[in-house]
Amino acid sequence: MPPRAKFTREEIVQVALELVARQGIDALNARNLAAALGTSTRPLFTAFRNMGELADEVYLAAMASFNEYTQRITEIKPPFKSVGMQMIMFAAEQPKLFKLLFMSERRQSDSFDDMFDRLGETGTVCREFIRRDYGLNEQETDILFKNVWIYTFGICSLVANGICRYNERKISEMLSLQFSAVMSLVISGKAAEPPSSTDDYSREEFIRQLTTKRDN
Questions:
Q1: Is residue 100 part of a domain?
Q2: Per the domain annotation, does 19 fall within a domain?
């Protein structure tokens, strides 16, 4: 009979999540986590096969925290904008978790579509808000969602890395301006869906083209 775990999986994941939120994903190792739990490393490997399995659970817990932020009920209108504001709030209050979810080389996406798919529940909710509130078709919804989300992601990255700090009013103005600009293009029919993943440049090809243009 296997030894009884001193801590449950849920307890270990919660402490690991708190560790990552304070120090970043690179701090997540058996020694640091055991110290945070006040125990030896043995209970970790009783509950989990290895640290990789635990890291995957921490990622899911971080995404659950992100979803909690983006689904908070606020007075900000429209709802789609509220999601963006809460996403930036998450980046400001949980910068290490934001980096784990969206800025980690360990979880690179092959294409924009892969990245958007990783949003899961939040991405689905955003699309539903857009279709409901603005009467757009599926293609128009995707164009608006992806372009505004990328812009919002840029603000989040600046905030999470401590490069820029914006107050709530400024962020609200910036998101409204970007939303209005993209919506105008969508309504005019001038907006186009980005290339599919099969047409995306590889990293090497992208760098080569940039270098060629710079040298010329």
A1: yes
A2: no
In-domain check, residue 42: no
pLDDT at residue 89 greater than cutoff 50: yes
CA count, 13 A, side-chain hemisphere, 34: 13
Do 19 and 41 contact (CB within 8 A), yes or no?
no
**Model confidence, pTM:** 0.79
Tokens of 36: 């945070």
How far is 184 from 33, CA to CA, in rounded Å? Answer: 50
Q: Is residue 162 part of a domain?
A: yes
Alpha-carbon distance of 69 to 109, in angstroms, equals 23
Name the domain count of the chain. 1
Boundaries of domain holding 190: 70-197
CA dist 53 and 50 (Å) reads: 6
List Cα–Cα distances, 124 to 62, 70, 146, 206, in angstroms: 18, 12, 12, 30
The DSSP secondary-structure symbol of 38 reads: T
Enter the tokens of residue 170. 């400024």
Type of residue found at 13: V
Q: Which of 79, 81, 99 is nearest to 90 (CA)?
A: 99
- Give CA–CA dist 161/157, Å, rounded: 6
Provide the phi-psi class of 162: left if phi over 0, else alpha when psi is between -120 and 50, else beta.
Answer: left
What torsion do the CA atoms of 194, 132, 157, 68 make, to the nearest 10 degrees? Answer: -140
Region of poorest pLDDT, from 7-21, 104-118, 178-192:
104-118
